[in-house]
Amino acid sequence: MVTNRMELSAEFVEQTKALFGEERYSRFSSALETEPVVSVRHNPAKRAADLGGELVAWAGDACYLDTRPLFTADPLFHAGCYYVQEASSMFLEQVLKQYIDAPVRMLDLCAAPGGKSTHAISLLPQSSLFVANEPMPLRAGVLAENVIKWGSPSTVVTRNEPADFAPFKEFFDIILVDAPCSGEGMFRKDARAVSMWSPGNVKTCVARQRTILSDIWGSLRPGGLLVYSTCTFNSHEDEEMVAWVRDELGAEVLPVAVSPEWGITGNLTGGDFPVYRFLPGFTRGEGFFLALLRKDGDGEVAQPRPTRSRPTPLPKACNAACSWLNAPEKYAFTVENDTVVAAPREHQTAIAALQARLKVLHSGVAVAAVKNNKLLPSHRLAMSTALNREAFPAVELTCEQALAYLHREALSLPSAPMGVILFTYKNVPLGFAKNVGNRVNNLYPAEWRIRKDPMEF
After folding, report:
1. Which domain holds residue 363?
2. Residue 215, strand partner residues
3. How far apart are CA 100 and CA 58, in angstroms?
4. pTM check: above 0.85
5. Shared domain check, 433 and 413
6. Residue 24 lies in a domain
7. 56 and 115 share one domain
8. Do residues 128 and 155 lie in contact, with contact meaning Cβ atoms separated by under 8 Å?
9. Both 219 and 106 in a single domain?
10. Could you give the number of structural domains in the chain?
């Protein structure tokens, strides 16, 4: 299927032809006139969806779809069973599989909407701590929702500028900077990216990328890894930026093993360091660029100092919440803003340090809200892989009922048990409700509800 012909800037065409060469550019420009592909990545911790399709060669739990279904109409999508993500950006998997074999602290600095974050969460060794950050408020909310749905209790979501991480000197083993860029790689998917492109915007992006990298560099431990990526094609934001990090900040550019069959393009500037370019017409997906750098030096990740302020200890009335998690002995339970929160004990000090200095939107597992010395389970608990499903009676919903629940409608369930109920779909938790006899109160978060009437799907 062919799209309407794309009107590219003459300046873009000129500079991209010069970089790619005539033959490569011809193949690339022809691919831009075709429909973008659709790809999804499964959540190995919630394996329930079977969407079929051809496998993505460089990602183990991902596949291409022949057509784009209405994901909003699939309850498993809302339950965090899979993520809709560009196949090209899933190349991050090769970096983590080839270089990470022990628990780490990892930061995704520009993380929204959460594709690479949820991917990394699934790949990192057990006992790792993952921090997903996004400075833009609306985008940060979307990021938090996607990370929460993915279900890992060893995650933190923050809303900060890169410079705000300055107090966390040598705190992370690996930092991913998927830098804000001119978006040339999204031309096929987003007409706005085409209309907004200009040489001036590219220069603005270059300056911003250098600031971001300089601001965050001190938070990476000596010997730690920086993954730098963009969704653009020009060398100013790609190869030249990698060379700048190497020469100005002090780093070694590392290779990532690839298969020739994947069709990945390498360094186009004649440089002597490896980079990985995904170009429409050569790889199946949108435009993407990645380079891996190791910070000069050798050292261990810095240990955070305990913060002076202490969270409120758990009142006796809240002790029942501990049994709502599997292996509760692995968590430290506290009350924060009338919410029982469980932090993995192995990351308790690190999480407390982040909470003391950053704008934290999510951390660990929000187990329950405390109201009048009574507990109401949190939706975040339902999404967490730490949930003890034996703690609540479960009611399996049909697809129609599940969509009504996700729309925050009142359900009629005459045979449902009294009290708090865990709703499931295909045996995957969707969230909680409370049967009070004459009605079933829908406890799905209002801000997450499906806006469209399910009857219109």
Report:
1. 306-371
2. none
3. 16
4. yes
5. yes
6. yes
7. yes
8. no
9. yes
10. 3
